[in-house]
Design brief:
- The complex is a heterodimer of chains A (51) and B (223).
- Chain A has 2 helices and no strands.
- With 51 residues, chain A is mostly helical.
- The termini of chain A are far apart.
- With 223 residues, chain B is an alpha+beta fold.
- In chain B, 46% of the residues lie in helices and 17% in strands.
- In chain B, 39% of the residues are buried.
- In chain B, strand 1 and strand 2 form a beta hairpin.
- Classes of the chains: A mainly alpha (51), B alpha+beta (223).
- Chains A and B meet through helix 1 and helix 2 of A and helix 6 and helix 7 of B.
Amino acid sequence: MATEADEHLSEAIEMASILIRTTHARLNGERGDAKADARVREWLRAYGGAA
Amino acid sequence: MIPLRAVGRSPEDLREMLTDWWLKPLAGALLEAAPHVRHLSLAVRVLPGDRVALRLIPGDVIHELDPSWAKRVEATHQRLFCAPMDSLDADEGAARAFGAFVSDDPAEWTTALRLTRARPGWLRDGERPFIVEVADLGHRRRPDAEAPAERARAARIAAPTLDPDVAAVLSGLEALDRRDQLIRLCAKLYAARERNEPDDLVRAALFELEDGLNGPLDYGEEP
């Protein structure tokens, strides 16, 4: 179970990192990353989060 | 059966192990991974020195489990603990252990593990098995939905002293709790962005996520 849970956590960390990066970009007026946003959105949907 | 090396020095130790950080997290882990399991067997084996070893195994639906999970159950979840039981014999000890798992007040029960006689086929030499029926009594949540803080607390306390296999399971629970925390924070930030909320609100959610990513585990408010 630890391995499986660690994989879930790794994915969450990756998604959080993407969201942080793209949000910083948006706040700085930089061009958005639609592909990255879509990844995060799908991930959140998969886990019942908002989006 | 290989008993765990966890040591309880008194019935009070045993009670604490069962109530606070042994059976609950393990039952929760099992139910989380295999929610259709509704019967766990608690096998009891008398060990030298008035000790007993208890073994938690899934019930008669194991054949429906994902093979990899069933294998993992076989490898890790069968071994629970051994503890001094003073003068109690195995039956009485198991009954007391079971009793310690639930509150004295039925209204406070989240889940009852009902001890009944097990099926003969589950016996191993020297074991006296019981069936532990996991019954949702509806008063509160089932063990697999216990508050994350409680589960992680159990993991933190138990992990250094447990059999490595079980410690891995509890460590896994903590990883899942951290994942859930990140999902919650990501959802909050994403929603703020989607609603085009003012930058200061988006920044606040962003900082919260950054803290959550780098800081200690925070469970947020209890539901």
